[in-house]
Design goal:
By secondary structure, the protein is α/β, with parallel strands linked by helices. It contains four helices and six strands, in the order ααβββαβββα. The protein has a single domain, classed as Restriction Endonuclease, CATH 3.40.91.50.
């Protein structure tokens, strides 16, 4: 499976399951972009999608910086490769693994008792 615009759209579907989530696109003051950010209250999770089979460390640089500056609570890289990876605090997942975790509630946690998305 390759990441496409259609796959990007599929990432928005679970929002209805989690309630009061707001998907958005971020641009930092320095002009750097983050593909998706889902927020609830003061909690934000960022996602960087790449249509590549090899994750490069540079792909996570904005996410790592935002984590270090406490702008986001969690960060995920999503790509077409076969391996689950870690780049600092950024969890890098193959698209199929990401979708599996998303649909089983491991990425976004539903319910008012959840303090973390």
């Amino acid at each position: 499976m390759r990441i496409s615009h259609r796959e990007g759209a599929r990432l928005h579907r679970p929002i209805s399951k989690t309630g009061r989530l707001s998907p958005s696109y971020w641009r930092t003051p320095s002009g750097v972009e983050i593909d998706f950010v889902w927020t609830r209250g003061d909690t934000a999770i960022a996602f960087e999608l790449k249509s590549t089979s090899r994750w490069q460390r540079g792909y996570s640089s904005v996410l790592r910086r935002c984590m270090a500056e406490n702008m986001i609570s969690r960060a995920f890289g999503i790509y077409n490769g076969p391996h689950v990876l870690r780049d600092g605090e950024v969890e890098v997942l193959p698209i199929q693994e990401f979708l599996r975790r998303l649909w089983t509630g491991q990425i976004l946690r539903a319910g008012p008792e959840s303090s973390v998305l």
